[in-house]
Amino acid sequence: MPVEKLTDRRPEIGADELVTTLVPPPRFDGVRFSTYVPNADEPSQAAAVEACSAFADRVAASGQQKSGWRSLFGRKPEVEGKPGLYLDGGFGVGKTHLLASIWHAVPGPKSYGTFVELTHVVGALGFAEAVRRLSEHRLLAIDEFELDDPGDTMLVNRLLRELTAAGVFVAATSNTLPDKLGEGRFAAEDFLREIQALSAKFGVVRVDGPDYRHRGLPDPPAPVTDEELLASAEARPGSTIDDFDALCEHLATLHPSGYGRLVDGVAAVHLRGVRPAGDQSLALRLVALADRLYDRAIPVLVSGESLSGLFTEEMLAGGYRKKYLRAVSRLTALARDAAASPVPR
């Protein structure tokens, strides 16, 4: 039986699905505060669990109060404290685990999505309709919060201003402090007022520590031969196999918010002829794909060059450095999963 290709898939998400599908990805279905294991050498991690748990309690309590006030008086009550919580720290310290735990601890209605998914919701529904739908929620959880261009800065600041005014709480993760968003990627000083206004809505919780995905683990597995790659794909039901260059071209035709749907239901991804990304636009698309593969715990096996060389030294020295390092970390973990999973005979 021929092995399926991702390049043959063209996922589409209807406008009505956009908000209803804003939930944590499968990898984080079962996470809770109780399942987060703080690093004993990093006290900020235990403190972050406490801060996130307290924030979730405040959201739940305020949500109940908000419903009552709205039904009686048609307006929201004043809420004590900042309406947002911002988890800052390096990659691989469990920020997404904590964000998903907040979401699971808060009664609905609520929404959870990546920054890219959120901006796509606004683009697809229109600003007013997105605000109307999301304003009914108690919590908006935003993973991988980044501002990569001035348009996003203005859009997200306006969106969060509208939502927090409606009584919605916001929790977010990022590798960049909120007053440093956009730094190194566009002329942030030209939009400093917008960025500072955004920053003022968040209380910052720092999460420090080494990347848990690779503590004490060996180097990533080496690429396999093309013959071994094909044999693995044919032996693993539900797998896909694609030429790396062809997949890169295909990704350029899809909005990154659809990458999750692109790989839904795939048992393992096989990429033939991996090489370094040729430009920054492609590199950022590969970051988005890596995140969605990791969300769904899909093993990745490659031929060609190592996944560790996916991004050039020049890219790793630029403003998107943390994104690229996160992608390499996550892809390496998925490559280990593929190597550790026996091929059916």
Automatic annotation (TrEMBL):
Superkingdom in the source lineage: Bacteria
One GO term of the biological process aspect: cell division
InterPro entries: ATPase_AFG1-like, P-loop_NTPase
GO MF terms held by the record: ATP binding; ATP hydrolysis activity
Keyword Cell cycle part of the UniProt annotation: yes
One GO cellular component term: cytoplasm
Keywords, comma-separated and alphabetical: ATP-binding, Cell cycle, Cell division, Nucleotide-binding
PANTHER family assigned to the protein according to its UniProt record, in alphabetical order: AFG1-LIKE ATPASE (PTHR12169:SF6), ATPASE N2B (PTHR12169)
Protein name: Cell division protein ZapE
Organism the protein comes from: Prauserella cavernicola
